[in-house]
Write a structure and sequence with these properties.
Two copies of one chain form a homodimer. By secondary structure, chain A is α/β, with parallel strands linked by helices. Helix content of chain A is 24%, strand content 26%. A seven-stranded mixed sheet of chain A has the order 6-5-4-3-2-1-18. In chain A, helix 2 crosses helix 3 and helix 8 packs parallel to helix 9.
């Protein structure tokens, strides 16, 4: 019943000994998601002891290699391990042909179905919804069509106060309405206030993933009020010009989006391999937005613990 | 001026924490080759401190993912590091379309040219030749078209005895003939035996790579008398039936090929991830062919030192 984000790869285009290319593993109430899948992501799953067969949906932000070259290997391994459960992959319309091509030359008859869903790049789009959460894609500004992703829990139900409902002799039929925050009128005319029989709902949490993108102010509105925000910080401000020409962001720009979005916490990542570590990025971001963290491969963020 | 083979990946289809998928780095007299390129090969280059830009030719045995899924990432990294030197890739005719497709969606204008050369699967074929060595492909027997590769140095020249030629006052024009093992007649009619002015040539060495394949006796003739033989040993003899149905070999079968080929040393590899280590494989092979070694990622074989 948690909501966790684990960094599988915090590096940029060139992998280093310390940082694999982009990949993040999300778990929300027994739903398991993968965002981006750079080369070696399946090895990161093993390294951090994450069960790759649990993944049901994969979200690919864009078709630069450091965000999807691990997909054929991950899918092959799922197949070789005998997976039968379907897999859904959200990505650019060109992705399906490429990935199917890579798999088909191997001559395997896949043991499971893969469904590809084409992303849209013009405006925020609801791409998945169930009773627990909504998943949105939203356009970023990079050299090729790129989407960020936002995971928003739906409002949660009030939690029954077991002792109170037992003492009042309430029935199962009442529970459903109390959980929705409705007051109850008993058959004898007695009115019951739901607040006397419930605890407040746990907060509905949210996470947004923004990689890769140049700085643009409106992004802060799109990810407004997410609890946890991941934003790429390929460069530090000293390389602002390079960030502009490559359509990437500096740590300072990431922190400005965090500040304007009113997020509670910023994760920086996608660090260029030219930096030995992310100390400068972190310093720069913290000067604008205090609650900043520099991603390292393997880091786990437990939103329920941090923001409830 | 060496001839070395380094194991970059000794695993089979499923990578493990200990074994990356297939890849080997060959270096022969300043020529740099890569055989197979499983996912994560570029990370193995970094891990073992091998300079990936030196690779000029890549040989892909077949189109199962554990032998080529690392190719797009390796090529992208070569590009991002500013490579200008051409690259030649030998593989199945379908490989070109797939790899170019993976690279083109990223929208990069590559900084260097890639030439694809289609392998033939019916008989041993000379696919490259220069003054130092010949490279041959030869058909293996796997579920899809598969080639092994053989690297054979050409006969080397006699080595001049510097003191002897100086003492006799010989000229550069004589050196060339002496190195070829020719005797010389001077203008004054004096006959000189080349053996008095040279040391014997260093031996011409050879290496053969056989992965993946089921056992077939004729393979020993194809790789006859190579100094060093790599042969896949996915299974041990206890899983002979599984080896047959998947078109793989057991360690015993690999050793039988080694014995029949009269190679000097056998490297076993491509171990199934179901084995914790390769002790059983090695024991099994050694009972038939004593000079057997089980590959581990990073192992380096220096043929010049071992066989000269």
């Amino acid at each position: 019943v948690g909501f966790t984000v684990q960094i599988l790869g915090s590096g940029a285009a060139l992998p280093t000994g310390q940082r694999a290319p982009s990949a993040q593993y999300l778990q929300c109430e027994n739903r398991h998601f993968l965002i981006d899948c750079g080369e070696g992501t399946q090895m990161q799953f093993r390294r951090f002891n994450v069960k790759l067969q649990k993944i049901k949906q994969i979200f690919i932000s864009h078709l630069h290699g450091d965000h999807f070259f691990g997909l054929p290997g991950l899918i092959s391994t799922m197949h070789l391990l005998g997976r039968t459960q379907n897999l859904t992959i959200y990505g650019h319309p060109d992705l399906e042909k490429i990935i199917r091509g890579m798999l088909e030359v191997g001559g395997h008859k896949m043991t499971f179905e893969i469904q590809f869903v084409a992303l849209k790049y013009d405006s925020p789009t609801l791409i998945f919804e169930d009773k627990v959460l909504e998943i949105w894609s939203f356009p970023l500004k990079h050299r090729i069509p790129t989407c960020g992703f936002m995971f928003r829990e739906k409002p949660k139900e009030f939690q029954l106060d077991g002792e109170a409902v037992k003492e009042a002799g309430l029935l199962i039929e009442h529970f459903h309405r109390l959980k929705k925050g409705e007051d109850i009128e008993l058959e004898n005319g007695k009115k019951l206030n739901h607040q006397d029989f419930t605890f407040p709902p746990k907060p509905a949490l949210s996470y947004a993933y923004c990689s890769d993108t140049k700085y643009f102010e409106d992004l802060a509105n799109v990810v407004s009020n997410v609890d946890l925000l991941y934003h790429e910080a390929t460069f530090t401000e000293a390389m602002l010009e390079r960030a502009k020409t490559t359509f990437h962001s500096t740590a300072k720009q990431a922190a400005e989006i965090a500040l304007q979005s009113k997020t509670k916490m910023l994760i920086l990542g996608h660090f260029s391999s030219r930096y030995d570590d992310a100390r400068l990025h972190l310093e720069e971001a913290k000067s604008i937005f205090t609650n900043s963290v520099a991603a390292e491969d393997g880091m786990l963020f437990d939103l329920r613990k941090m923001f409830s």
